[in-house]
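Our collaborator T.R. sent over the components below with a one-line note: 'Predict the complex.' Nothing else. No constraints on interfaces, no templates requested, no preferences about which chain binds where. So this is a plain run: every listed entity goes in together, and whatever single assembly comes back becomes the starting point for the next discussion.
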Amino acid sequence: MSETAIGRGWGGQDVRRELHSELLEINMGPQHPATHGVLRLLVRTDGEIVHGVTAHIGYLHRCAEKIAEGCDWRQWMVYTDRFDYLAPINMNFGYAVAVERMLGVRVPERAEHIRVICAELQRIASHLIAIGTFGLDMGAWTPLLYCFREREEILNILERLTGGRMLYNYFDIGGLRFDAYDGFERDVLAFVNIMEQKIPEYDTLLSYNKIFIERTADVGVIDLATCLAYGCTGPVLRGAGVPFDCRKDDPYSIYDRFEFDIPYGEGEQGTVGDCWDRYMVRMREMYESCRIIRQAVDALPGGPVKAEDLKKLVKVPQGSLYTRTESSKGEIGYHVFADGGSKPFRTKVRSPSFSNLHVIEKVGPGMMLSDLVATVGSLDIVLGEIDR
Amino acid sequence: MEATAIHALLQSRFGDAVSDYVDGFEKGSLVAAGRVAEIAAFLRDDPALGFESLMCLTGLDWDGYDASGKGKSVDILGYDELGRPQASDRVGDGDLGVAYALYSHRHGHKHTLFVRVTRAAPEVASTAAVWPTAAWHEREAWDLVGIRFTGHPDLKRILLDEGWEGHPLRKDYVMPGAWQGVPLDGRDYAACKWDESGVTLPDDVKRPEGPQQPEGTQQPESGNQG
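Returned assembly:
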């Protein structure tokens, strides 16, 4: 602060100037490739060191919760697609389960199995994006292209199944909109066979790459206490060393029938809860999803895909219920308040990325600016569900 | 622990601040708005309760709610067929509320806290010091429902612009007719003009009939209408 430097002025004279440093405010976003969407992080830096992070969100806000109050229960399903546009089936699933629990409706077996298959396919697709773009943030271009190759297969299957490539609107209250096409099981199994061979390929390409490990291990450590306090869920919480997953710990649909493990961070390359752990949880979850899909395809029964005793205009009995399911990003919760009528009185969406992003304001200060990019990438946020 | 036992424990500890037991799809307790923060700290720190996780914080408006359960709650105000904001003479009344969905990882039990505050003084004690995740959820409840959280570290809008008027999730919220001078009411935007003198809005644009226009200046019929 008090040092002086002597330089040469325009006229050749000596110029004395005090050297000082000050906090510099940098905008990361709203248009920035490392923010994964329209997010603005206001970063206060001293050189390369981050002193404070403030997240400004809301750029994609459409107030879908207000729209819900004007829709009937079935109609709003299409808006849930738009929350997490990288995993719309998981968003559909959460809303369908929430309303069905309040209605007390039994979903037909075939529909439940197809739901699980779709949700797990979608989870793989979403994790592929997470892994690919995280590699991209770390300067690894190639894995992204490999990830998109496999994601394309999933999108093809879902397109054949639902007609949409990105937003499906396939789930309905009480089942599915229509049955799967002939040969759906064959396509899914063919994909799973390929996918299981590809995962070791990603590991060689990225997971155990020396440069990648140097950039992610011991970086952006989020410990368990911080995760719980800030409501972090999904791979962020599991990366911190807790095998908590709504599919096992708060079971919904038919997940209790399948055998699968919950991967969690063990600090293999550094500290528990670092970026590498969160990344690796996603990688291993893809393998577990393949296991679930195999079991669900094996057990796929015939029969209807819609609950038959359900009217077209459903009326949810009065009351409120918070229902959570596991999306690819974490716990997607719907707090539904019903007045007994044909429209939702109030539906609050608790999106996983909302809480997962909040933690950046806590863990950001003190890290290097480049590590902030790594940490945001490892959180795998989608702004559509943060802003709703 | 059973929800009834949790409610009884809260009642013995906080007396009048904990009133009704809520027995619906989810079980919970109705508590006093001013003492939520103390109750929250107790819920988190008591070893038998151990609610270290706030799953969800919901702000809501009970205005026009049909308590009989027939689904006759008041309709929200939207836009009419022409895209104009609907207005109503009805004055909003009824309470605002907050719901806290809690979960304990240690014990695996859930409980929901409900709070009701009057529309005239919608003030709830902030729980951001107990569960830091509440800080953003409370900002959202302030932004969209207009509930003030006393003791919040930085209570400001989160999803909407700082200059936004009103709180959209209130049942008597009137949809905006314009935003920053740009009308939102379904006028013919293809008829807008924009030159160095500024924007001429569709209402002021006089659209000449086709045949009366001088040659060569006729607009193509197919435009992006609306």
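Summary for T.R.: Chain A has one domain: 63-348.
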